[in-house]
Amino acid sequence: MKSEQRDKPANGSQHARKLDALTHANPAHVNDIADALVIKNEGLFFLCNPDGTVPGGEGHGVGLYYHDTRFLSTYILRLEGQQPDALFASGSEGFMGHIELSNPMLNRDPQKTIDRNQMGITWQRVVNAHRLALEDVLTFKNYSMEPMEFNFSLEFDADFKDIFLIRGMASPQGMGRADAPRWSDDILCFGYKGADKIDRSLFVHFSKTPAKKKQTCVHFNIKLPPQEKKEFLVFLHLAETPAGQDTTQEMQTTGSLRQAQEYQKTSQQQWAGGFLDVRCSSPLIQSIINRAIADLRMLRTVLREKTFFAAGVPWFVTLFGRDSLITSMQVLPYQPDIARDTLRLVASYQGKKINKITDEQPGRILHELRVDELTNIHELPYHPFYGTIDATLLFLIVLGRYIHWTADMDLFDELRPNIEAALQWIDQYGDCNQNGYIAYNSPVHGDGLINQGWKDSGNAIVNADGSLAEPPIALVEVQGYAFMAWGVIADLFRRRNETARAEQLEEKAQDLRERFNRDYWLDDQHFYALALQGKDLRPAKVISSNPGQALWTGIVDPDRAKPTVQRLLASDMFSGWGVRTLSSNERRYNPESYHLGSVWPHDNGFIVAGMRRYGFDEEALQVTQGLYDAASHFHNYRVPELFGGFPRAGFNIPVRYPVADHPQAWAAGSILHLLESLLGLCPDALAASLRICRPILPNFVDYLELHGLRVGSANVDLRFERTQDGQVQVSTLHLDGKLDIKIESDSPSADPHGK
């Protein structure tokens, strides 16, 4: 389906800016955000320091964001000129944050001193996506036996900064300008005239009239009788309007204290639904699972009336082909509907033409969609950007897996043109050198490449001598994705009685498998190469985690599965918390790098699924135990995007990666993916069947229950319980609908597509 329509030739400066944005080794160059409180509701999200502040100045990544733009960049509470003491901060509700503060010693004058910790300050804040607002309720309570009188102030600023400027991945060339802050009665107004012809505004309202207004700071005087409290609402409303449109109506949009409190109550009730109910005997594992589900709820985002998982907060709150598809697949047993929406959504953006700036090609599934100012004025290529080698393959895999859980062949028929286009892209563009391997060409730029696999930082794909791999690059796991994609789509064609198409794809998959096990295997290492590189297909002979994902796909020869698993669990690869992205023996190893030695939970989730597929159950439990142990050390049991690859021995806790996204979609999804793998859930909804293959549980879990598991039109509650001899017994607690449940204690594959 090659298109003759082409965009104008790539502009040289545009191409250079694209390289600058895509070849960085880190996701962001800002101060540590690991302890930031994060709340999000659809596309609106807010980060603050644990004391509730947004500090202002340069170098920080906290604030109120919308459409890849930071609207609010400063928000500071002071009592008599001093910042309160932080006691507690939690964003466990996802859309709502709760902060507890206490007063420092306040010396307003010698007769009116307030001793430390006599006042409690509760900062309840909610992200209201419907009203595009941050709604803060500040409550001051006097715990002493004496009356209090004091002044508190709130300072604000809005920089309307593009997220790529915050991340240090672009320059402000050609951008718009900010208006001077102004007051309209008691409303503080910030404005920005974008170069993309969008005016961005932030309006700050207060439930009480300030005693004093000075520039962008407001002051209030409070008198508090003993044991009494007072509440204030701060309502921060943002707006985007076409350039030149009157913003008076937007400015007047406000809320009351009562409305804010009612919104909190109703939103809490709505927030809880939609996911499978998982119950576990281990309070620790239950807390980790609950946190993962809460994070996934937070990351739900709506675009074109379809729900998908945004990749992560704060850097990737947008639609990502790879991340959004993988996360929807990880949660298929727990919430299958989002996979359907995600498949339809990415299909709607499927490539139609050739564009060298955005890397669009006919049939290709997008990598990333942005709506920030730099993208809108085409300074950056994310409108959308298609530079990923694996999203098209994952689109086909997720479709197949979705149908195995739901029996929704209507979606297969609906997306048939997209499926055909994706299959043609694999043959025509994915196999860019027509040598039988899916690869990407990428220009070397400075110290990086534009890498297009999941390890997409500029320095991620390396050789044993430390040099960067040479394009074209055929990643090891990508060949596995292609093998799996052809297999699952062949299965769907066969279900539609299209036997010839099915056999054609199965032959392609088998041919790839044979060549893969010949060309990627390193005899001297007893392991698979990270990639084949250059036109002569030289192996990148480093030990990496990528072959673990190839295990998951089933492309690995069974005779080579054991040495592959053993190598992944050697001390240079397995840190004790998880499998590292790169061996600690390699020259490029750095435990605090993004992709060259860190530990990624989602990567380990695939590795565990691969180990289970080939029958390595104890090894799968070992990796799972490490990840659950790591999760127990993170704040609120939230698994971050990645963490340091330092060895567990000598480090009693996992070492944080300072600017990792948290929450992050496929990291949260990995917790649920691990459970699916251990329980051995293998659905075939089209046959009204559920195989449970060699179920296992970690040693510290006595039982685990799934309530409301959907397989096709059936709904089932299952209990997995450890017996005295260490086996796992499965019982059906409730079944609504027709479903044939088979327990297979000696099945060779815990994968529904295993051959």
From TrEMBL:
Q: Which InterPro entries match?
A: 6-hairpin_glycosidase_sf, 6hp_glycosidase-like_sf, GDE_N_bis, MGH1-like_GH
Q: Which Pfam families match?
A: GDE_N_bis, MGH1-like_GH
User: Which residues belong to any copy of the Mannosylglycerate hydrolase MGH1-like glycoside hydrolase domain?
Assistant: 477-632
Q: Which residues form the Putative glycogen debranching enzyme N-terminal domain?
A: 39-232
Gene3D superfamilies named in the record = 1.50.10.10
Q: List, alphabetically, the SUPFAM superfamilies matched.
A: Six-hairpin glycosidases
**This chain belongs to which protein, by name?**
Glycogen debranching N-terminal domain-containing protein
Whose protein is this, by species?
Thermithiobacillus plumbiphilus
